[in-house]
Specification:
By secondary structure, this protein is mostly beta strands. The protein has 1 helix and 25 strands. A hairpin with a 2-residue loop joins strand 3 and strand 4. The structure holds 2-acetamido-2-deoxy-beta-D-glucopyranose (11 copies). It is a single-pass type I membrane protein. Belongs to the interleukin-1 receptor family.
Length: 317
């Protein structure tokens, strides 16, 4: 058991309450943690103080938890540090304050049960994974990167400064990464870990095509006007997948209808971030009375599944 029921419920409650209003930060027990005040003093007369639930926090650096200007140090953090912290800028005229909620989690070796920072990356290119929120830690050493809690080796991975550079990111590179380093403060050393959930911008492999335009909606158009309705679908990152997109009217494929009134043009394209789309545009030369009672349906399908969406025409208000 990693959590007792009570602590777990308490953490959930805190997470829920704070999710509404405050910026959230995550720390692991027994590791050094530094909170930064989001406010900046505008002149030298302004000082920052820290408090928790109206109790001011000491500046004595011998204390496990102490404040130094903009920064609140937890050396190390413990489970009951979970809570709301307030930094206040006091000046002669007025005071400003900001709340930060700190959420603690237990330290254990389960990679999937950590406070995780998300990062989504595009496929195909070289990527750079940053160790989040670590600029505040001045004296750091022994920097190591892990994936699924195993140290990373090999030519594909390159440590650059505090980040990890990766050649040609693919689906297989998705997972939980963590950076670990040693932090030295006031003669003592502490361990710090940061976990990141690295996912692809769209994990193509589990996806069915999804329509992104012409999604179940009505379009206002005047009788006799021409009209183009385009419908596009995101297919994934891999264009070798077969997919089709087409329009039907009242359930009949446009290709088998009267060509003088309806025409359909299909194309596909790739965005600079390698996303593959297919698109079909329905051209209506001249909108007629009966079109206002018709269902215009765009279909997309591939071996992964399909989706459809109905467009209804209506007279302008
Ligand atoms: C700082 O406070 C002193 C004394 O109250 C005052 O003379 C000075 O103008 C203040 N400086 C700023 C930048 O507000
Ligand atoms: C903090 O103190 C202020 C003023 O004394 C009071 O209005 C507020 O309710 C207190 N907040 C907490 C969390 O105790
Ligand atoms: C929190 O835990 C620390 C270390 O275990 C302990 O010294 C401190 O008294 C605890 N504080 C509260 C409010 O329970
Ligand atoms: C990582 O992110 C993916 C995609 O958002 C999600 O499905 C997965 O559950 C996340 N994993 C963890 C451990 O948070
Ligand atoms: C690790 O944590 C995840 C998510 O909390 C949980 O589903 C899984 O069972 C845990 N694995 C182990 C080995 O404890
Ligand atoms: C419809 O698309 C065609 C071809 O792109 C274009 O020539 C025409 O002007 C468009 N009509 C409307 C109403 O947008
Ligand atoms: C693209 O799809 C083909 C066929 O499913 C698969 O063999 C190939 O590995 C995929 N490529 C990428 C980059 O996912
Ligand atoms: C249009 O679609 C609606 C909802 O799917 C359906 O109830 C109706 O019968 C359709 N009308 C025609 C003419 O196909
Ligand atoms: C096709 O549409 C045109 C214009 O509305 C109409 O004149 C013609 O009779 C239609 N042809 C057929 C086969 O329905
Ligand atoms: C579609 O069905 C409706 C209702 O049956 C009909 O009024 C309309 O003429 C049909 N549209 C076309 C283009 O055939
Ligand atoms: C449009 O509505 C239909 C019927 O409610 C639904 O099956 C379909 O998934 C919807 N399409 C989109 C793109 O939301």
């Amino acid at each position: 058991m990693f959590f007792s029921g009570k602590i777990f419920m308490f953490t959930c409650l805190i997470a829920f309450v704070f999710a509404i209003k405050y910026r959230k930060k995550y720390a692991r027990e027994n590791e050094a943690y530094i909170l930064e005040c989001p406010l900046n003093p505008t002149n030298t007369n302004e000082t920052i103080t820290w408090s928790q639930y109206n109790e001011s926090i000491s500046a004595n650096i011998q204390r496990r938890v102490h404040a130094t200007g903009k920064y609140l140090f937890f050396l190390p953090a413990v489970m009951n540090d979970t809570g709301l912290y307030t930094c206040t800028i006091q000046s002669t005229l007025k005071s400003k304050y900001s709340h930060v909620s700190l959420i603690m989690s237990e330290s254990h070796d389960n990679c999937s049960a950590q406070p995780i920072y998300p990062q989504r990356l595009g496929m195909g290119t070289g990527v750079y994974i940053l160790c989040p929120d670590i600029d505040l830690y001045e004296h750091k050493s022994n920097f190591i990167w892990y994936k699924e809690c195993k140290p990373l080796h090999g030519e594909r991975y390159m440590k650059i400064d505090t980040g990890l550079s990766l050649n040609h990111f693919t689906e297989l590179d998705q997972g939980i990464y963590n950076c670990k380093f040693t932090y030295t403060y006031n003669g003592k050393t502490y361990t710090v870990n940061r976990f990141k959930n690295i996912t692809m911008k769209a994990a193509y492999i589990q996806r069915k095509p999804t329509l992104e335009t012409a999604i179940n909606r009505t379009i206002e158009v005047a009788l006799g006007d021409p009209l183009n309705i385009s419908c596009s679908a995101f297919i994934g990152y891999n264009k070798s997948v077969l997919a089709a997109i087409f329009w039907s009217i009242n359930g009949t494929h446009v290709a088998s209808l009267n060509y003088s009134r309806f025409q359909e043009y299909a194309r596909n394209y790739i965005t600079p971030s390698h996303e593959f789309y297919i698109e079909s545009t329905l051209h209506i030369r001249k909108v007629e009375e009966q079109d206002f009672n018709s269902n215009f349906t765009c279909f997309v399908s591939s071996s992964r599944g399909g989706q459809d969406s109905i467009v209804i025409l209506k007279y302008p208000e």
